[in-house]
Amino acid sequence: MSHKHHHGHRHPPRVRGLVLPWLLLALARGPTHGYQLLEQLVGAGLPVDPGILYRTLRALEEEGTVVSAWDTEGTGPARRIYRLTDHGWELLATWAQYFEDLRGKLGEFLNAYRELADKTG
Amino acid sequence: MSHKHHHGHRHPPRVRGLVLPWLLLALARGPTHGYQLLEQLVGAGLPVDPGILYRTLRALEEEGTVVSAWDTEGTGPARRIYRLTDHGWELLATWAQYFEDLRGKLGEFLNAYRELADKTG
DNA sequence: ACTCATAACTGCTTAAAGCATATAAAAGTG
DNA sequence: CACTTTTATATGCTTTAAGCAGTTATGAGT
After folding, report:
1. Alpha-carbon Rg for chain A in angstroms
2. Does B72 fall in a domain?
3. DSSP class per residue in A36-87
4. What SS3 state is found at B79?
5. Pairing mode, if any, of strands A66-71 and B79-84?
6. Is A4 a domain residue?
7. Would the CB atoms of A103 and B91 count as touching at under 8 Å?
8. What residue is closest to D6 (Cα–C1')?
9. What is the maximum span of chain B, computed from C-alpha positions, in angstroms?
10. The total number of structural domains that make up chain B
């Protein structure tokens, strides 16, 4: 019966809250639709669930961070094209600032860790 | 009447999931108790709510990442001293690896953003 | 006719955090 | 001594980002 130790240690190391800023960055390159964003983010090594993506886009629109319009030209199902507003650009800028700070903190973390791992391990 | 624009644009730029790894790092420096960890994290520029901290520590213990023991010596209320287990060290190592990756991604983000911000204004 | 790629969206659940509050021991202060 | 503050741990309720599964629909390929 293989004494499976019940400690549930899940915790696949991962932080949350990255989808939104990455969406903003992707949209900063130019207006596009959800499905394309989905592929872009996967390509950038940030796989994201479609449900999350579409819901996030709609939430962003409610806040005035993006605006959308249907595109019925072309083939296949209609696409909803999203575009960054001025407020969206401002928000992206604050994210960039925050990320600079976070990058610094991660550096400190890693330095401290390496020092400890050397000493201890 | 101050036409308070109803776009709720909250989103104080912040990622989630950092408390746990920073706790692991702090504990890697040596066994200590929650209140001290609280002050350490605030000192490291990572302000954390006491409720979150204590609950996280208990969750970590349930998983076998840390172990605790009451310290009734000394003055003031009793302290629960936490110590990293071997599994805790392993978990910290995987976080460090993840953070290296994340740091790289943040760098890419910032480079891409600066390029766009230059071009666009 | 059938399947597949494209495209958008909903429902239910979990995980980490935010915020407020409770409890209690000891130290400091008028 | 009564009162407040500091140290220390903990719970309850809510929100938010995400995980996971599924639905609807258009058009192209076979």
Report:
1. 20
2. yes
3. HHHHHHHHTT----HHHHHHHHHHHHHHTSEEEEEE-SSSSS-EEEEEE-HH
4. strand
5. unpaired
6. no
7. no
8. B76
9. 63
10. 1
Alpha helices in B44-85 (DSSP H): 50-63
- Enclosing domain of residue B28: 19-120
Dump pLDDT digits (tens) for A47-105: 999 999 999 999 999 999 999 999 999 899 999 999 999 999 999 999 999 999 999 99
**pTM of the complete model:** 0.91
Phi, psi of A32 (to 5 degrees): -165, 180
pLDDT, greater one: A22 or B6: A22
**Total residue length of chain A:** 121
Q: Which of A10, A14, A96 shows the shortest C-beta gap to B113?
A: A96
- Is the separation of the CB atoms in B63 and B91 below 8 Å? no
Residue B60 lies in a domain: yes
Nearest to A20 by CA among A50, A66, A60: A60
User: Using only C-alpha atoms, what is the Rg of chain B?
Assistant: 20
Whether CB of B42 is under 7 Å from strand D: the answer is: no
Bridge partners (DSSP) of residue B84 are B66
Strand partners, B79: B71
Decide if A5 is inside a domain. Answer: no
The structure tokens listed for B88 are 């805790």
What is the domain-level CATH number for residue B102? 1.10.10.10
Q: Which residue is nearest to nucleotide C6 (CA to C1')?
A: A76
Which stretches of chain B are DSSP H helices? 19-28, 34-43, 50-63, 86-120
Residue B80 in contact with residue B71, Cβ under 8 Å? yes
* Spatial CA neighbour of A102 closest among A27, A44, A15: A15
Find the Å distance, CA of residue A15 to C1' of nucleotide C13. 19
